[in-house]
Amino acid sequence: MLDFGFDKLALIGAVALVVIGPEKLPRVARTVGALLGKAQRYVADVKAEVNRSIELEELQKMKSQFETAARDVEQSVRQEVDTASQALNQTWSDVTSDSAYEGGGYTPPPPSYRHPKKNWRLKRGATPLWFKQKAGVRRHTQSGAARVARFRPPQR
């Protein structure tokens, strides 16, 4: 790159002082400094962009490696599940074949559906109703108008 030593910088400064003059030299130096600052920022931005693109390429490589590893794991799991299901089907067919029930011709009945005797709409509490009645706990909600009508003093 450019190799500027102290002697070269002093020579450039002396030539600039003679050519430009002492009145305009500070303004020119500020302008040159501003331009050098802009150039340095531009170079830093370019370096950052290059680093980002390199990191993006590395991330894409890592992503592809991860995807291939995931595909390999998925294939191995699928293969194991297939072999297990085949073994289960073979065992099931052996158990349910006619040779298992040759003695009396017995075939087991299919399981029947039993409804769980629960009312899922009804909220059940842990406290029994008799205890709530004894303790005076309200079991039903009332609107404001119903509460006023209930506790209104009798008219004479």
TrEMBL record:
<dbReference type="InterPro" id="IPR018448">
    <property type="entry name" value="TatB"/>
</dbReference>
<dbReference type="GO" id="GO:0008320">
    <property type="term" value="F:protein transmembrane transporter activity"/>
</dbReference>
<feature type="region of interest" description="Disordered">
    <location>
        <begin position="81"/>
        <end position="118"/>
    </location>
</feature>
<feature type="compositionally biased region" description="Polar residues">
    <location>
        <begin position="82"/>
        <end position="99"/>
    </location>
</feature>
<keyword id="KW-1133">Transmembrane helix</keyword>
<keyword id="KW-0653">Protein transport</keyword>
<dbReference type="Pfam" id="PF02416">
    <property type="entry name" value="TatA_B_E"/>
</dbReference>
<feature type="region of interest" description="Disordered">
    <location>
        <begin position="134"/>
        <end position="156"/>
    </location>
</feature>
<keyword id="KW-0997">Cell inner membrane</keyword>
<comment type="function">
    <text>Part of the twin-arginine translocation (Tat) system that transports large folded proteins containing a characteristic twin-arginine motif in their signal peptide across membranes. Together with TatC, TatB is part of a receptor directly interacting with Tat signal peptides. TatB may form an oligomeric binding site that transiently accommodates folded Tat precursor proteins before their translocation.</text>
</comment>
<dbReference type="GO" id="GO:0043953">
    <property type="term" value="P:protein transport by the Tat complex"/>
</dbReference>
<comment type="similarity">
    <text>Belongs to the TatB family.</text>
</comment>
<keyword id="KW-0811">Translocation</keyword>
<keyword id="KW-0472">Membrane</keyword>
<dbReference type="InterPro" id="IPR003369">
    <property type="entry name" value="TatA/B/E"/>
</dbReference>
<keyword id="KW-0812">Transmembrane</keyword>
<protein>
    <recommendedName>
        <fullName>Sec-independent protein translocase protein TatB</fullName>
    </recommendedName>
</protein>
<keyword id="KW-0813">Transport</keyword>
<dbReference type="GO" id="GO:0033281">
    <property type="term" value="C:TAT protein transport complex"/>
</dbReference>
<comment type="subunit">
    <text>The Tat system comprises two distinct complexes: a TatABC complex, containing multiple copies of TatA, TatB and TatC subunits, and a separate TatA complex, containing only TatA subunits. Substrates initially bind to the TatABC complex, which probably triggers association of the separate TatA complex to form the active translocon.</text>
</comment>
<keyword id="KW-1003">Cell membrane</keyword>
